[in-house]
């Protein structure tokens, strides 16, 4: 069981500090790992498909290349 799994995101907007008195709820978000290293919601369940780290980067580069060609 993995509590609060960490994922890399290419761009994140800065967020202001968390409000006073804010506490993370216990066991808010968790997942399990399959034998192949994929995440699942249930043990031995089907895996969750997560977007690629590089996909938004490629899209942004393609847009910029199209602008330069025009």
TrEMBL record:
<keyword id="KW-0813">Transport</keyword>
<dbReference type="Pfam" id="PF05758">
    <property type="entry name" value="Ycf1"/>
</dbReference>
<comment type="similarity">
    <text>Belongs to the TIC214 family.</text>
</comment>
<keyword id="KW-0472">Membrane</keyword>
<keyword id="KW-0934">Plastid</keyword>
<dbReference type="InterPro" id="IPR008896">
    <property type="entry name" value="TIC214"/>
</dbReference>
<comment type="function">
    <text>Involved in protein precursor import into chloroplasts. May be part of an intermediate translocation complex acting as a protein-conducting channel at the inner envelope.</text>
</comment>
<keyword id="KW-0653">Protein transport</keyword>
<dbReference type="GO" id="GO:0015031">
    <property type="term" value="P:protein transport"/>
</dbReference>
<dbReference type="GO" id="GO:0009706">
    <property type="term" value="C:chloroplast inner membrane"/>
</dbReference>
<keyword id="KW-0150">Chloroplast</keyword>
<protein>
    <recommendedName>
        <fullName>Protein TIC 214</fullName>
    </recommendedName>
</protein>
<keyword id="KW-1001">Plastid inner membrane</keyword>
<comment type="subunit">
    <text>Part of the Tic complex.</text>
</comment>
